[in-house]
Amino acid sequence: MTLPMYIKFVWGGIIDYFIRFGRKPFIVYGGLLTFFCLIILSFIDPGAALIPFIIIELFSWVGIGFFTISLDALVISTTIENERGKINGVMFAAQNGGLAGGALLLPFIAKTLGYNMVFLITGFIILPIILIPLLLKEKKIEKKPQKVSRVLIQEFKKKPIIVMSIFAVFVMMSSGIILLIAPIWMNLGLHLDITQIGLVTMLFTISIATGSIFGGILADKFGRKTTLYLLILSSILFTALLIFSNSWEYFTFIYCIVGFLQGGYTAPICAMFMDVTNPRIGAAQYSIFISLFNFGIMIGMTISGSLYVMLGISRVFLYSAWVFGPVLLILYFIRLKKDIVI
Length: 342
Fold this sequence. Notes:
15 helices, 0% strand, Growth Hormone, Chain: A, mainly alpha
């Protein structure tokens, strides 16, 4: 169902082709599409009409894809570089705060009011969010349709953009490994039940949200690369310390620090993506960076289960820390026009 989120570059290309209309209309259209789909889903019984349910849910994710990538493109075209760290920090904090709150609240709603009310309430939560980006003043970049593919090819032929793309894949592989292996270890190694695992996961998500604000502020204050060196080096240390997690208390403490650092380096990375993105194709180019970002997570998740079976938990945690070694090497070769310092 989340396939539309992995092909954001398709929606980004459409948004950039119709750049003469600006980004705001696509924020509204995408948000409204998701809103109406969720309202419809609240009246459909998936047991009796599974195919229509799946189709409507798929369209709701398409709406989210248009909404999020057009919002990113709007941020790229309306902000200056030394604001983007904080902006991305707040965006990721809101995203992960919403995930934590949803994980706590939505199951309660489903249990007490029914699953259909989850879709209905979520729809009405999304509706006012659509209006917030409309407060931003947008300057139109182009007055006619543009050949998005041609401009994209030109951009991705540039050596700095190629290096940035490789970095985008590698930097999130460790997070992908941890994302899948941590719940397995909590269940099989620490013998936590599903409620305890849910609680630890919620604390981890809150830590990511807090760290993203911290990392975004540092990125604008001391520069992208300086902040990334600090947070990634710290991530190597604390990820490796998970090797010694033989109690749930110790694991939760270190795991939340890892989450804090993950949120911390995610905000400056996405700010860096925005810095090098051509505003003319802001939706398509930035969405490609984010797709590569997500691809790195997917690779980490894909290999983590096999690594756990073959090597055991200690070596998996060690390799998830080791992945950051090539990341630091690639980061060294990234050349920005200027590393923002205020």
